[in-house]
Amino acid sequence: MSDKMESQNANERRIAELEQEVERLTHTIEANERAYRLTLGRYVTTEVMEQLASSTDATVSGERREVTMMFTDLRNSTELSEAMEPEAYIRLLNHYLKEMIFILNGWKGNILEFAGDSIVCVFGAPQRNPDAAESAVYSAVAMQRRMAKVNEWNLAEGYPAIQMGVGIHTGEAIVGCIGSHARMKYDVIGRNMNLASRVEGFTKGGQILVTDETLLAAGDDVVVREGGPMLVRPKGVQGQVRVHEVVGIGSLRIP
User: Fold this and answer.
1) In a domain, 104, yes or no
2) Which of 126, 216, 244, 252 could form a disulfide with 51 if both were Cys (CB 3.0 to 4.6 A apart)?
3) pTM attached to this predicted model
4) How does residue 235 score in pLDDT terms, banded at 50, 70 and 90?
5) 9 domain-assigned
């Protein structure tokens, strides 16, 4: 075999080896990315994941935007957690959260965090949604209706029935990634976020309370309790705020 042919064969073998190495590395990268997305996807939605991945500097990713914010909370959860065995309470809580998360994801709600048994969720960020208020109210009605099934499961397992309150407000807020490269999260900041939290604090178990801004933006299919709005005085807010109790959507009612 001539030196030229031997050199050519060596180059071909090298190319084949490099192609195999590239293929191996590609499979490894794809597997790592799938594992990364699967793991991270348990903590944030796809939209937030993409926002975090594309953000190179947490200080430049913020913007002001009108969004709809939702807070939920279980009633008497502290008493429940103290009365139940830890394993049983966590199992009850995780089943409840699983049902609520499924509904929120279906209505494009982005869950910002779980604060104990509370859910903090935003509609209309990171991706814009002109129907954010409608989506939030519709999902809240679906969540309250689903609580009957949640409690059926609870009772079948020997657990107590639970009740949830939901507060919703629509307004301008700062949205974006906060933190550092070591730890970062997508968040919503501003007085309107605080107001949404305060509105939830006025709810009773099984109630959905929304502000004027949310009711106006949510559309005509929203059904509120007869008797007109309630006037509340949230802590840290000047003056009174009108809130409405949502009892259904169209012909669907909250039990």
Assistant:
1) yes
2) 126
3) 0.79
4) confident
5) no
